[in-house]
Write a structure and sequence with these properties.
Length: 412
Amino acid sequence: MNDAWTAARRLADGASLDEALGRASAESWPALDRAIRDLPPWKLGAYVAQGGQRLRWDRTAPLSYLRWRRAPGAAAQSETVISLCHRDGRIRESALDLTAGSPALLPLLIVRCTDWAAPVRERARALLSEVPAAALAAYADLVLLLARREQGLFAVALLDRGLREGPAAQVEALLTSEDRATRRFAHRIAVDRALLPPGRLARLAAGSGDATLQDLCADAAIASMRDEDHDDVLGVLLTARNGRVRAAGVTALRRTGRHDEAGAWLADRSGVVRACARYVLRQGGTDPLPLYRAMCTGEVTEPGAAAGLGECGDRSDAGMLWALVGHPAPAVRLHAVTGLRALDAVTWDRLARLIDDPSPVVVRAATRALLPNAGELSREWLSERDVPDRPRAVRVAAQRLLRAAGYLRPTS
């Protein structure tokens, strides 16, 4: 159940945690805490412990003062939950002792460690310190969620220590967590503890869609690889789909003394990979500019070479790139426009014809290049392209340029 308010009302009516919350996410526990605190006063009856005896908060008493009476028996789970989240700090503090030996209440004990009332917070922390590390690791996503709170770092420190000192299996189990923060936390500890071999780190970097994990695992794989690991690690990194992972692999070629191999990535589709390839070549004593010029003459088979030429060439190379603007391959035209922008060699009247290009990616690239000079384009010429019978990419480009030129009001 995702509705914390409904769950709180069901708990007040005697339902168990499992009945009220079902499969709870990390966000469910702080939400439930807030929802219970906002219940009407007559719903807030709760069992508490005082002087070694179980006492019950009297729902009939005015909220302006405390009145206690003996409870008829052990507190039901629902009443304990309500006590742990009660708006009165004295009730929350007294209820904390009821969490001992009850794994189902551990999430609320974690929440209470961030309580705004110091006595509640300190008692909760003392109790949480006695919880086994494996039990706390099961709620790593909640611990890391609450770390955003002002008082949220105590449980994080416990979790960190437990994972660093505990068995590797505990860390391993969290590497594939559905929670992104938990995955990152576990991977950092696994790297610090050297639990993962270089080859596996490289594969984790290549297979992850998380930029933070890509950087972490790629850097760790490179830092920990031995001579016999070079082919395994670099083979994975250099063929990764993500540009930042390939860039890490290309940069690592310098460390292994394989500078010349970086030339194969000079025309990579990713700008950061091209930049790393140029850096490694220069460190090995090779100037990449002549290589780019050679790649951009004759029949161009590597589109990224045009962008690379613009990134490291000079204005004298603009003529070569203008010739590629008319290349039959859309990818080459796209990168030629990118190279011209890098050289600051865009001439609006020559580039405007690409607004009618059959390739949407080329149209978008030309539009970006023309935006600073949109006022040079006539309103009539642009309006002719903002009509229903034009391709969508052309219409969108015309509208963007019309707005940039001040012919249309910006959309809100």
